[in-house]
Amino acid sequence: MSLVSTTASAQDRPAPPPQRDAPELAVGVFRHGANFHPLGGKLIFDLPELPDGQIYEGFEENGTVDVQLTYRSAPLRILLKPRLTAKAQISTAGRTSFFSGGAEWRQHVLKRRLYGQVGIGLTLIDGYDVTPDPFAPGLSAGEAQRRYDIYRRRTSFGSQILFNPNASIGVRLDRRWAVEAVWEHFSHRQFFSERNPGIDHLGIRLVRALGR
Question: Does the domain spanning 2-209 belong to CATH 1.50.10.20?
């Protein structure tokens, strides 16, 4: 009688709530250069073919794959409770990688099983503010070819420092694990130079809450 009662009581007990205020670690996979901006500056679209050897500025790195590692602090008790973030987004194709620090704000719905999140940060890139000119006069054939390979594969961002607005939608799998659909944007709004192609990434992240 006692065993049956204990078993029934365990089965009736509600599932533990999602982890609320713990720091988090996340790992994600992203399409690098997704040609998508949810606020309308750029949308998914097709462009006409260019002549051989020519590339649309800002599209040199599109379609490659990145891996992102993210750390988030527990929510602060100020300014609408942001989480401080540190992110390293590494290109798997030898293109530009992004190293960011910032803050993210989260809003939960459906008994904390679903959440939306927006953030902003500053980013340091390991790529080019301006790629070397392969068409400059007086170059040797080897140097011209080296520069042309960079021109075809790497984007000139106009600055080594970029802004990183971002947004995500998360679904909690249990009290420790969640999965997020993510948009990341990198540009400098022409604050540092006239050249500012910007770039957008779309991806998915697996998130684990730390602590007990």
Answer: no
- What is the three-class DSSP state of 141? helix
Q: How far apart are CA 172 and CA 22, in angstroms?
A: 14
Q: Where are the domains of the chain?
A: 2-209
Q: Is a pLDDT exceeding 70 seen at residue 55?
A: no
CA 90 to each of CA 69, 77, 134, 191, 202: distance values in angstroms, whole numbers, following the listed order = 8, 31, 26, 25, 14
- The tokens for 86 are 């540190």
What is the C-alpha to C-alpha distance for residues 35 and 23, in angstroms, rounded to an integer? 31
* pLDDT confidence tier of residue 21, bands split at 50, 70 and 90: confident
For residue 82 the two structure tokens come to 């942001």
Torsion angle defined by CA atoms of residues 61, 62, 64 and 68, in that order, rounded to the nearest 10 degrees: 90
How many CA atoms does the CB half-sphere of 66 hold within 13 Å? 32
CA distances to 12, 36, 96, 185, 198 from 41, rounded to whole Å, are 51, 9, 22, 11, 10
pLDDT bin (cut points 50, 70, 90) of residue 53 is low
Q: Which amino acid is at 19?
A: Q
Q: pTM of the full predicted structure? A: 0.84
**Distance between the two ends of the chain, CA-based, in angstroms?**
34
For residue 193, what is the DSSP state? Answer: -
Cα–Cα distance between 110 and 107 in angstroms, integer? Answer: 11
3-class secondary structure per residue, 90-105: EECCCCCCEEEEEEEE
Q: Around 73, how many Cα atoms within 13 Å sit in the side-chain half-sphere? A: 14
Structure tokens at 212: 């007990």
